[in-house]
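JOB MANIFEST
job_type = single_chain_structure
chain_count = 1
residues = 253
[input]
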Amino acid sequence: MTDAGEPSAHAERQRRFYASRLHWHLRPDVRDFYARRVIARTVSAAGIGRGARVLEVGAGFGRFTFPLLDECAAVTALDFSARTLAELERVRDERHVPPPRCRTVCCDVRDVVRALPGERFDAVVGFFFLHHVDDLGGTLDALRGMLAPGAAIAFVEPNRWNPLFLAQVICCPDMSWREESGLYRLGARRVEAEFVRNGFEDVAAYRFGFFPPQLVNRSARVRRLENRLERLAVLRPVLPFLLLSARAPSART
């Protein structure tokens, strides 16, 4: 595990939170159809190919890391929590994934350029990550420096207009309103504006999903119904997941 720098006060508070609970809902599981579905939509939107080297920010325990590895050549998993990355490494080794295909980096996202000097990736992705950062513009500026020319950046975030997320925060013992309240300050327009301000191109937003993971993972019938519900125009504003994507300029200035 590569370790670089001290986290900000905001990141340190969240690091302590993720060290204090088990967070079973964030653990990787080979039966997690929901996670694979999120990855499939992200890979499609970002144009991630089999040979891509991907930087995943806010990787945590690796719930999305391992499905992502099935779609690309290598993932660098970045998180500020050494505890969660140690668990990710344990699962990686249990699944006999070579460490060079799935290396970990422990640092604040804004220190990523210093942690990985000179590296460039074919894509940067994050899952339910952006609403936890306290400096959206600074985060995107740092990540732009990690992208190869023309490479994609994509994030999946909760859609704040969907009521299920509030219910989840209230009912899930491993979640905290203090740590999750940022989702109500993070809308598509704000992220799109920050993408443009930081020099990204081809900015796009897309909503998908319908049912919570507990139902998606339980039934193929539910997954087929979800596909049909996603196509109903009247539901699109409140579909639960917001996929935000953009590209670095083809030629750096």
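[summary]
Residues 33-46 form the longest helix (14 residues).
The longest strand covers residues 147-158.
exit_status = 0
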